[in-house]
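TEACHING EXERCISE
Course module: macromolecular assemblies
Task: Read the component lines below, then compare them to the predicted structure of the full complex.
Student: A.B.
Group: 4
Components provided:
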Amino acid sequence: MSLLAIGSVAFDDVETPFGRRERALGGSATYFALGASRFHPVRIVAVVGEDFGPDQMRAFEGRPIDLQGLARVPGRSFHWKGAYGYDLNEARTLATELNVFATFHPDLPETYRQSPFLFLGNIDPVLQLDVVGQMAQRPRWIALDTMNYWIQSARPALERVLREVDILLVNDAEIRQLTEEHSLLKAYRRVQAMGPRILVVKRGEYGVALFTPEGVFGAPAYPLEEVFDPTGAGDTFAGGFLGYLAWMDRVDTTALKHATLVGSVMASFTVERFSTERLEQITQDDVRNRLSLFSDMIRVEDL
Amino acid sequence: MSLLAIGSVAFDDVETPFGRRERALGGSATYFALGASRFHPVRIVAVVGEDFGPDQMRAFEGRPIDLQGLARVPGRSFHWKGAYGYDLNEARTLATELNVFATFHPDLPETYRQSPFLFLGNIDPVLQLDVVGQMAQRPRWIALDTMNYWIQSARPALERVLREVDILLVNDAEIRQLTEEHSLLKAYRRVQAMGPRILVVKRGEYGVALFTPEGVFGAPAYPLEEVFDPTGAGDTFAGGFLGYLAWMDRVDTTALKHATLVGSVMASFTVERFSTERLEQITQDDVRNRLSLFSDMIRVEDL
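Instructor-supplied answer key:
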């Protein structure tokens, strides 16, 4: 059993009303791996430049994260610069330097090609499709994240890869842009016609909506005193969500609901500090305690 | 046992991307009474003008809604005109004609002064306080709704009436404006210091967050295919919420969680059509069925 993730490993410059960080560890594959590896071994496929050194690698050490697929090539690593206002729901991108990511062509190590769970992080859908094509057999579960940029500029490729996907994870604006439907129930039917039979809509501080053929589930965000930096929340959510499903080795409605809670709890750690600062520090007890609190919080006796 | 509500009974002109209505029945007390009277008898205190006729009164007929406190005076009824864009979360007010509401001084009928549950709808906090003062004894539970206009222009009076209040029901923007805190957990502590020990944050399509001294609860909105007109959703929620609590005659955490689901379900009917069109038509079975679906939807087995 393994969970394979493709995405970015990057440096982020982030500014929020509560402070700033420069060249902090970031990237979708980074947050995903840190979130998922609490529950299940993860293999990542990504690329970094020569500026990615031991200080950055330390975040992955001592965890069940296979870095065989993390290519190191000449040049500088992917670099994102963004800022948030008091409404932490939306990032303003100030700069995106693709650097080594611009010419990245994922090449899966032989051992990776059997992974039963595959997460296609938010990158060019052409690359996402390429990765699917490199698998020795179709993974049992393929999940995909994308964003407004690809929906607008690469829709044909995105539609091709979506036909291969089981679980689509996006935010409110993205699902409405992709389906051209405001109602999420209608959007979900459009998504089903595109391929994915499960839709997860990430709504930041408003929580998560989960759509399955059996029905709809909504969970609030885990309530926090402070949100310092929302960067990586969505990828950490995806990591917790898929890490939990891979660990359970079961994708039914109950497991999906639980995975939603697990993803939300993992994301809640990410946003409490900048970058991966908190996510790296937490213990299994921290995760268990917060999951237990969250589970109590949303429990309702039958009406 | 009774549930007393003060608020507006009005004519609304509403335009949404899906259509428009002119001089449709509206007002906070109207929606509240229609939502609450499914569960418990309601008494309303409000004022209408000579233009409010049998066509409008029909909405209240055949329901346990006591209209003894609905004053009819010379002049025209309160008239609100608003529009919504595709983001149905926020109304744009085009006109507010207070008319008979401008000189409204609530005078509680003698029988009303014993009501154990009191809802102070979104009106001038000076009038809200006046109503509290007219009660023969302090109601067991006082709930209050307010809005940005009063928070900004009548804060001292609002703070005075809040000292008497048990349950505050507001939206995201209002709670942040009132407490000057972005974090809802911090905002809740500020609210507790102001008086109310229970806070209900209405978040439109994102559901409801409930804060009690025992913890936080979040429920999604009931998922709908179509939202035609969000006008009245908050007051219908308050009606379902307090009507259910009055019916249960119990305000503990379980009852409050259930009341949140009931309020959400009642509000879901309101927004499916314009004005009170759907809310007037539904049967007790419609309410029961939707409550049962909603309850199943959010149920999670223990992790």
